[in-house]
Every structure is written in structure tokens, then in C-alpha cells.
Amino acid sequence: MTADAHAPLPSDGRPAVRRRPGRPRSAPQAEPDTNTRDEILDVAARLFAKQGYEGTTTRQIAQVVGIKQASLYYHFADKSSIVVALLDGTVSPSVSFSEWLRAVEAEPETKLYALAAYDLDVILNDPWSMHVLSRIPDVAAKEEESGRPELTTLQGRYLELARSCAEARAIDGESLSVPETDFSLVFGLVESIVAQRYWGGLETRAQYAATVPRGCLRLLGVPEAAIGVAADQAARLIADYPGAQAR
């Protein structure tokens, strides 16, 4: 994209939104393009971060993007729908990484450690703190309505890897090392990092996040020595992931 004229946000120290060349300003488009949708999301994230969810209106978002409010509704039914799309965007990188892991030759505990570490990094480096918005009642209701397919997919990948770890560590080769009902605790432990945005600084959250992948493996009965090996191998997997450069 090239830098073009645009309606600026109030000064917040962040770079201005850049637009596609040739896009009409504040005029209906015969066929609204996907770039408009992306711009709406980018502007909305900035405004939510600066003004809060309640303090931001769809009219404001449309004005900053440079489109009519009616054009915004072509892409999103309401403000909470914009937030749900933003939340899905915070999950997509981890879903892509989990898909890549499926084709990689590695022990299940290494893959699970890598997924947890990568996912935590995505959450901690969310520039707009979008995860916090999921606590807003009408956003939560919209999330439930949509089913959050990306989040459901990611949770399924955690459950797959948790089962593989439990099967690999089975004492007699048949029974699981931990009850199957405990598998969901792995995903819950990773997601608990979202709550850490409410206390401590980035260093505190990073220290907490560093313990989570190990905690996931401990939940599944992986010995400490094996956890250390998994941590080293997981770091190499993450370094080799082609998608890491796109983040």
C-alpha cells in the first residue's frame, strides 16, 4: 500500500492508516473490496485501544476509514461483529502454526510445547490488547453466536496433541497417562495468560508465560527431563517455522 490522503486519528503516537491507491473517499462503492474490510478492522482496533469499546462508534470508525457508515455495515452487522473479527485475527496465527506442526516430524510433547509457546507469544504481543474486549457482555454474546470457528479449531489442535502426549506416556501402552477429562486443562492454562493483562507489567506476564508450556506437559505426566528436551526442540521448531517471518 502507498501512503495516501486519509482522515487521521487523534494523535496517539501510532502510525497512520495507509490506503490503497484509487479508492474513493466517503463514497459508496459498487463492489466493496476486501481491503476496505481490513482497513475497518485496523482503524477499529486503534480506536478501541485509544477510546475504549463503549467510547467508540461505528460512525467514528467509518469517518476515519473514509467511507459512509452504510458502507461499513456491508462488511459488519454491528460494532460487536467487528470485535469478534478482530479476536479471530488474534487466533489465526496460532491456527496456522498448529496446521504446520501437523506435517512436522517431532514428538507430541515437543509439538505441544511449541504450540503453547508460540500461542502465548502471539497473545502477549497483541498490540491492541484485543483479548481484553472478549470480556464485554455483548461481544461475548456475539462470540457465542458465531461459534468462534478459529478458536474452536485451535482448541481442537491442543486436545489432539494432549491426547497424543497422554497416549505416548501411557504406563501399560493402553491406558492414558492422565484422565481424558484433563486434556481441556491444557488449553485453559494457555488461555489464562489473557487474565495476566490485568496485573503486572510485560516482564511479569512474560515470566508467567515462560512457565506455561512446561505446566502443560506436567499436566500430562511428562517427566521433567523430557520437558527440558521438548523445550529445546520446540525452540528450534518455532525458529524453522516459515510463517514466523510474516508476523
From TrEMBL:
DNA-binding region: 57-76
Region annotation (Disordered) ranges: 1-36
GO molecular function, one term: transcription cis-regulatory region binding
Record key words, sorted: DNA-binding
Pfam families: TetR_N
Record-linked InterPro entries: Homeodomain-like_sf, HTH-type_TetR-like_transc_reg, HTH_TetR
Keyword match S-adenosyl-L-methionine: no
Domain named HTH tetR-type: residues: 34-94
Entries under Gene3D superfamilies matching the protein: Tetracycline Repressor, domain 2 (1.10.357.10)
Official protein name in the record: Transcriptional regulator, TetR family
Organism the protein comes from: Agreia bicolorata
